[in-house]
Write a structure and sequence with these properties.
Pfam families: Methyltransf_16. GO terms for molecular function: methyltransferase activity. Keywords: Methyltransferase, S-adenosyl-L-methionine, Transferase. This is MT21C methyltransferase. 27% of the residues lie in helices and 26% in strands. By secondary structure, it is α/β, with parallel strands linked by helices. It has a single domain, classed as Rossmann fold (3-Layer(aba) Sandwich), CATH 3.40.50.150. It is globular, with a radius of gyration of 16 Å.
C-alpha cells in the first residue's frame, strides 16, 4: 500500500577525495561534520557499502520526518560505523552492533569520529543475529525508537536469523530503516518476507546504485 511512492535519489558524492598515504581511509561529510572511516579489507563488514551512504544521506536530509534527537537507536550489522556516527551527530543515543571480529575497527571509527563532541556517547556491542538476544538485550530493559540496517542482505546463510533479529527488536513504536543494494533474487525474497510480517514502505530508491531504502513498522492489530 504505497501512497505516494518512493522518491528517486542519487547517492551524492559526499566523500572528499584525499591524496592520503593511507589507502584504507575514506573521508565523508555529513551534517556539517567531516567523518573519517577506516576500512578493513579482511572483513565484509569493514567496507562502506552503498546502503550506508544512502541511509546516511537520507537521515541527514529528512531530519524532520525522522528526528533522531534523544532517540534510542540500534544499528545491526554496523560495519564501519558510518551510519551510527551520522545518527550520533544527529543527537541519538546509539548502540552500534556487529560480529566480534568487526568490533575493533567499528569501535575505533566510532570513538575517533565522536570524541570531543557534544553528543550522547555511543555504545559498541557484539550482536550475532538470532543468538542470545533475550540474554544480551532483554526486552524489559531495551527498547529502541529506531532500528537501522544497511546492506545486511546479500549472499549469506544468516537471512532467517537476521529476520528474527529484526522481529525481536521491532516493538510497537519502533521504526526499522533498512537500506540495501538489491543484487540477487534472495534480496527480493527477503523483502517479501519482511513485507509479510511488517508494514513496509519504500521511502526512496537510488537506481544508479540499485539501492532501495525501506521503512518497516510492526503491524498493530
Amino acid at each position: 500500500s504505497l501512497t505516494d511512492g518512493p522518491v528517486t535519489l542519487k547517492i551524492l558524492q559526499n566523500w572528499v577525495p584525499r591524496v592520503s598515504p593511507y589507502f584504507d581511509k575514506e573521508h565523508y561529510t555529513y551534517v556539517g561534520h567531516q567523518i573519517v572511516i577506516q576500512e578493513s579489507i579482511e572483513y565484509f563488514g569493514a567496507v562502506v557499502w552503498p546502503g550506508a551512504l544512502a541511509l546516511s544521506q537520507y537521515l541527514e536530509s529528512n531530519q524532520e520526518q525522522f528526528n533522531l534527537k534523544d532517540k534510542k537507536v540500534l544499528e545491526i550489522g554496523a560495519g564501519t560505523g558510518l551510519v551510527s556516527i551520522v545518527a550520533c551527530i544527529l543527537g541519538a543515543y546509539v548502540t552500534a552492533t556487529d560480529l566480534p571480529e568487526v568490533l575493533e575497527n567499528l569501535s575505533y571509527n566510532i570513538s575517533r569520529n565522536t570524541q570531543n563532541m557534544n553528543m550522547h556517547k555511543p555504545e559498541v556491542r557484539k550482536l550475532v543475529w538470532g543468538e542470545s538476544l533475550s540474554e544480551d538485550f532483554p526486552v524489559s530493559t531495551y527498547h529502541y525508537d529506531f532500528l537501522l540496517a544497511t546492506d545486511v542482505v546479500y549472499h549469506h546463510t544468516a537471512l532467517d536469523p537476521l529476520l528474527a533479529t529484526m522481529v525481536y527488536f521491532c516493538k510497537p513504536g519502533t521504526v526499522l530503516l533498512w537500506a540495501n543494494k538489491f543484487r540477487f533474487s534472495t534480496d527480493y525474497e527477503f523483502l517479501e518476507k519482511l513485507g509479510s510480517i511488517f508494514n513496509t514502505t519504500i521511502l526512496a530508491e537510488f537506481p544508479e546504485a540499485n539501492v532501495k531504502l525501506l521503512k518497516a513498522t510492526v503491524r498493530e492489530n
